[in-house]
Amino acid sequence: MNKPYDMISISAVAEASFVTRSTFYRYFPDKKSLLKAEIEETVDKTIPDQPLMVQFVRYVEVYWPVLRHLAPTRQSRADVHEILNNILWELIYQRVQESTIDDPVIDKIRSSKYPTIMNSAVAGMLMGILERYVAEGTEKVNKRQLETTVNELVKMFKIKTIKPAK
Question: Where are the beta strands (DSSP E) in 61-102?
Answer without folding.
Answer: none
